[in-house]
Amino acid sequence: MDQANSNDTKSEPKSWIVDVPIRAFASTMGILGLGLVLRSGADLLPILGLFAPATLWAGGTLFGVLTMIQSLRFILYPDKVRKDQTDLTGKNLSSSFSISILLIAEAVRPMNQGAAVALWIIGVTINVILAIRALRYWLQRPVPTDEINPTWFLPVVGNLVAPTIGVPLGLLELSWFIFGIGLCGWIMLLPIVMRRLLIQDRLPDVILPTIYIAISPPGLAASALLALVGPQAAMLAIITFSFGLFLFAVLLTLPILPAKGPFYISWWAYTFPVHAMSLASLALNKSNAIFPPQPLTLALVGLSILFTLRVAAMAVIAIIKGRK
Predict the structure, then answer these.
(1) What gap in Å lies between CA 120 and CA 115, rounded to an integer?
(2) Homologous superfamily of 21-323 in CATH?
């Protein structure tokens, strides 16, 4: 009896590691993104800056833990890692890993620019490789309509995150190169994904909240334009930001995230797009653009906080229920 209990106890950590998919990095995107929103929003509302360091540390710590878990999965359960790349969202949500590295680079930039440069190069390299892999996969065979979903934007999103972080690090030429990939990739994918959302069957519940990813590229493009060109690009930035804001307003009217039912870890992808819009709004305010007004910016920051807290609460409740 004791030996059986001992064997059961030993098997529990293994099963726990097996069940943590690569798309869990979407949670670090959400938490790190919120930390950057709080840090940037401190210029408008200083109290936000009090919570930024702890949020960024929490996101960085979670990233480290998840990286160790995924390393163990890769060594001990390579078949499970391969399976992650064959499900509906796994191969695209893998980009949340490289995007998280870029967000960590921005988090550490004020303290250690050398480390930020190294992290930026690593994050960009991985993201470009993942973007090549995704495009290669789509070109190799006809893609069933059911496989098209908003997570397709994620390999693009990483390339739009990079310029905003790379320019302050002095990586202007590389940032333009990455921005070109991201912007043209978004324009290419936008009609494909929108056709899927507007004409085909409703997205499955497991990935329905990822529809919010559609608002990430216009928000990130606005921030990238301001970083690359400066205030002179404010009007172009306002155009892309306004499109993202319109999509966001539409999505707010829809019951995307159910109040009851099972929690899916891919739902963390619901949070970062709101952070992207908040950061773009804050960047436009700092450039003294004619739009958006500060009250709207503060409203977006408030929604960033609420969205993240809601998903975090749902995740904690799901973990507690899973242990019972």
Answers:
(1) 8
(2) Voltage-dependent anion channel (1.50.10.150)
